Amino acid sequence: MKHKPQITTMVKNMFGGISKKFLLIFLTLLINLSSQAGENKRWIVFVSYSQDSQIDLIANKFDHFRLNREKETIGLEVDSDEMKWLQDNYFSVEIDSAKSERLQQSLIINQNAQVDIHEGSGIPGFSCYRTVEETFATAESLVANYPGLASWGDFGDSWEKTQNAQSGYNLNVLKITNNANTFDKPALFVTSGIHAREYTNSELATRFAEWLLSSYGEDADATWLVDYNEVHLMLHANPDGRKKAETGLSWRKNTNNNHCPNTNSRGIDLNRNFNFEWGCCGGSSTSACEQTYRGPIATSEPESEAIQLYMDALYTDYREDDLASVAPDTTEGIYLDIHSYGELILSSWGFSTAIPPNGSGILSLARKFAYFNNYAPQLGSTGIVDGSTKDYAYGRFGVPGYTIELGTSFFEDCNYFEDSIVNQNIETLVYAAKAARRPYTISKGPDISEIQPITSPALIGQSFIINAQADDQRYVNGSGLAEPSQNILQAQYSIDAPPWHSGAVTHNMSASDSMFNSPQEQIQASVDTTGLSTGKHSVFIRAQDADGNWGAVSALFFDIIDPLTAPIIHGTITDINSGSPVAFADIKINSYQLQADANGEYLFQIPAGTYDIVVSKEGYLVAEELNINLVDSQSYQSDFSLTPLVEVYSDDGENGNAGWTVQGGWILSDELASSPTHAWNDSVSANYPNSADYSLTSPVIDLSQASDATLIFNHRYDFESSYDYGYLEISTDNGMSWTELDSFNGNANNQWTTVEYSLENIMLSTQTQIRFRIDTDTSVTRDGWYIDDIIIQKSYLISEDLIFDNGFE
């Protein structure tokens, strides 16, 4: 997040004590509001509050917001009318100028592209998000590529298709499971795109599908989830509305033209139209033009009806439809409705502030989800919501239902989506699939993490060691009492079937310190392969806490080979310039890891298959050979000549300031260093200040002959999450302009880490500079950024011309 100018819309005494810059921005805002009210203009803003009644007022107006009680701010994405509403209600508003500018630029690109849209390039201005047609094409491609694992079914019609069969869309569900396994399986059902303008959620669900299927057979967790579970994804639950939103309109509802007809406010809010406590409690509107209009009757809309019918067929009914019956611990299934924005995990009840009968288990699972995406988990919603999807899932069936609010805006910036949403929330979805078998108890049990990879195949009858960590503390608590954690009681593993499955044989694991006596334990076991066939196998690991709760299973693959027939791969690693051996180079062959010996030689026996070899050694360029096909009894030689690296620039901070330009609080100090005693720090012995824009700029470096240069440095950082950032930037014109290489937010677990950046795609020059910059907002500070051991290196290859010049021709 870049620097945000403060803008207030208080109309009382509005000019008193306001700087000229402040007043200019404020007047510009008012001009925009009056002259561009009809334009598609939107802002990312932070609204200050001082009492809960103001939160309630915001909640009644805006269905989505980001509440930060520490900062006493509310984050919103608003249009001109909504900005005027904030002004009329005397709220103090701060515009995030950088995000707002990026949003507006993307919307302008979107508008300009409407006359010439090319399929396959994503939504104009937001290329990371596939259109409805592109999403459906991806689903159909997945089914074609994985016919035994995926199916694409039609389970209803959108509103426009019910009016005209030649328009609108089918309401399709992508089902992912191993069809060869016909036993009963728990189901994770995910809907996305119910609110059309929320760009992130359908793309996330699509990428989750891609990950599950592309990782099948390669990633052990993805494989067992597909083998033993069902994942159902309605990628677009409101495709008619989404097509409107793809043009840049802030379209929320479906497109039912019978309500508020012939306007951009027409339609029904599908997430207020479900037949559980519909219209009961003031959590929806009876006004057809309002964004939360619930419709004339429950399930009036074909989209909500299709989702309800799908749930009816998918889930077992575990509880009565009253508000007091408890679903049993044996309940199977999880329902997730993916939305944006707010970085929240919301749960039942939406229509009431009362704790639901399974409140403890519902909250535990929300807190477990939050461990992966660091969102705020809670019981209930941010305001009253009746007739919602999640309440239908829990109220009708006892299956825990959640609304996950992704990110920070409806039209989320692609960089933020890629960096801060995708991977974190795929991890959340993976955990949801793992917990679907027993959501109310698995969520209370310990996770298995830090499984050490098996570095080589096992020979027939040979034993090998597995090591992992059992952890009963992987929660984000949110508000309220902290999630209880217990000591680990036991851990176990099974081979080729999860522990609960018919025919599975479990084996006990031991604590690495010989005693289970803490909530976090290192665990290990010796796995005997006697009786197992050659080929790929799975080991499933889980742990139980002192309350008797078994946590989620994690798995890994291992191979067993016959030494008489398994192929052998071997070779020698040498220096390309000298020809001398490179000792102890690291070699990775797919997931296997080994080292060359002191003579640069290696020999490795592996199963038949296709392999990539990657060789690395400090001080050399990485080398690789790809797509090596090996068959039984084959001996394959793969030699590597490594190109050495030389330092073009280096600074470890031990000889004082070597020409760096400091702006703000940056200083070279011995407060904390990676090696040996000094490092750059933005705020010595203190937190960085509010409203800081501090930069540390390198001297000019000549990289004109370093086209393959790599930047390396060590750092650690602690920034206020989602608000304060550190930026790594590069200039090739003596600081006239800067390009962002990366940004950092949150903290790096208070550890030094080494990062590398290839500069080969940048037109380097004689006037190259590197800049480290922090940018902070107006409240809440943290320790900041430490930088050490800065190196720029390039490859060094002795040319033939040089050899000839020295008399070898």
Q: Which percent bin holds the helix content?
A: 10-25%
Coarse shape: globular
CATH class of the largest domain: Alpha Beta
Q: Detail the poorly predicted runs.
A: 1-39, 800-809
> If helices are DSSP runs of H or I spanning 4 or more residues, what is the number of helices?
16
Mean pLDDT: 91
Termini distance?
A: 59 Å
Q: Based on the structure given, which CATH architecture of the largest domain is correct?
A: 3-Layer(aba) Sandwich
How many domains? The number is 5
Category by helix and strand content: alpha+beta
The strand line-up of the biggest sheet is 5-6-8-7-9-12-10-11
What gyration radius follows from the Cα positions, in whole Å?
29 Å
Proportion of β residues?
A: 25-35%
Question: So, the CATH homologous superfamily of the largest domain?
Answer: Zn peptidases
Number of strands: 39
Q: Could you give a short account of the major beta sheet?
A: 8 strands, mixed
CATH topology assignment of the largest domain: Aminopeptidase
Features:
single chain, 809 residues, alpha+beta, Alpha-Beta Plaits, Aminopeptidase, Immunoglobulin-like, eight-stranded mixed β-sheet, 39 strands, disordered C terminus
